[in-house]
Amino acid sequence: MAVPVVDPSLNPVSERVAAEPPPRPRRRPARADVLAIGAYALLGVFVCLNYWVDVQNRVSSHLPTDHSWFEWLFQHGAYSLRHLENPLFTTRQNAPDGVNMMANTSLLGVTLPLAPLTMLLGPQVMYALYLGAALAATAGTSYWALSRHLVRSRAAAFVGGAFLGFAPGIVHHANGQPNFVSNFLLPLIVVRVLRLGEPGRWRRNGVVLGLLVAYQIFINEEMLLLTALACLVVVVAYAIQRPARARAVAGTFAAALGVGGGLALLLTGYPIWFQFNGPQSYRGLQGGVFHSWGEDLAAFVTFARDTVAGDEAVERTIGLTEQNTWFGWPLVLLSVVALVLLVRRSLAARILAVLVVVFSVAAIGPTVRVNGVVTDTDGPWSYIPDDVPLVEMMMPTRLALVVVAAVGVLLALAWDAVAGGGRPPVPAPRAGDDAAPAAAGRRSRWLRPVGYAAIALAVLPLFPRPLPAQPVDPPPHFISSGGWRPYVPAGRTLVPVPIPSNVHGLPTLRWSALTGQEFPVPGGYFIGPNELGEGVFGAPNRPTSTLIYATMDTGSVPALTDENRRQAVEDLRYWKASVVVLGAHPREAVLRELMTGLIGPPRRVDDVWLWDVRPLVP
């Protein structure tokens, strides 16, 4: 998320000249800084509270499969480090074809450094611990950027940082998508971009920017792209309003940008090549499925589900997409009033206004929706082809995350103005007007509490609630105890029933994650290529997996033929299976009947039904 920071030679709130220099950097964090970071950390724990009730056996109620995927990713980082394998690719899922981890949301910049902790604590603990920490860290770096580069009031920076780290749209993504709350590098990137024009520091600024960008690529490329677009708009808006200054620093800015871009490309060139050209890479998503995900106009004034003022029932009307713009009407009203009051005297506010307008419009998508009703009015994305590189995989609604950032910065500016950091000087009284100073004093006495109250009333309804969680069954004892080991030699796979997919098989995907990924499984939860090279969710269904899913959906076993049995053996051979395992499941009876009809009777081993298929698949 982008945090606009203007040229340090101008006060970004009231545009006072450099005769009033910004405060000197502190050698040590002030007590206010420590309190702010501590508050963010406590809020991160609070948001994840429902996971900590039973961290080993709880997942997100809203996105349980995504939650399990990220647990699997933490284990992937640990497995790659423990076995010294290439983390950009894995065959522990979707065996034998594997998964291109660079072409998926892999969070390698987090899972690899934290691999020792994952080995020690396990992926469930690591997931909950990291999720809260990422929220708090994003708020913390936003607080640092705001307090050091934009506002004078530490309280203003605290409010802005809290919103940037725990905004409704961000907390919504915390339901199973920690990659979208891992935004702690983005404020640092934005600060560095807007310092590229500093004279005499172009090499250092470029190197630091390149390192930050390279690291962010291994956390979330989509958020990096959104930040780059936001920075582009900020720089252009600044150049239009300060053309002389922009021309003066253009050469230095370009040189530093070249250094940063070159270093980032040098460090990430091979992984990016691997993402688009390595095994199991793909070109775009089949049918451009994300392009229809635009924001409902009513969402802007609606309270998000996971806030104290939110109502889950509203999702049945306008909750068709992510809740990135669900600010609630008080915050929307406050933002409009704040912009009206600040734009005349604040360059930063004018830039924020441009960001809000541009990215709010862009987030609408291909058609305009109002309160769940699709209108006949075309949105901006209706004019964008589905096959534009990079853009082809973006969801329009996620452009609203830039609006989230702009609103967070605006809150900081508004609080700072109320506190006096951006208050313009009181006009000099006219001759004979002895009442003017007294009137100005009275105005300042009532404006401050009114301003604080207005901000509080706008943001307090957005205070997050603990993320909803649901229990999930642990793996069978046969799996967790290692009872599977004699049945799965090196080079062979364990086929769980149901086979993991983006729709079915949440528990069986966790079997892999919670046992250190020591056995490979077919299928999984990922994006890979279809026969045309387009990205699709999960592995293309084979005849046997299709039969399994159909049986689960209908609750009955279809009439089986010799062709079904031949295909089952062929599929097992393709998967390099050595054993098929069925644990406790709501459809256990019909699934056992199906597999028995396809490959023969099973054996009861410990707490699972087991088919040793090595005689069928030599």
UniProtKB/TrEMBL annotation:
Domain spans labelled DUF6311: 87-374
Pfam families: DUF6311 (PF19830)
Keyword Chaperone: no
InterPro entries (alphabetical): DUF6311
Transmembrane segments: 34-53, 127-146, 155-174, 224-240, 252-273, 326-344, 351-368, 399-418
UniProt keyword terms in alphabetical order: Membrane, Transmembrane, Transmembrane helix
Protein name: DUF6311 domain-containing protein
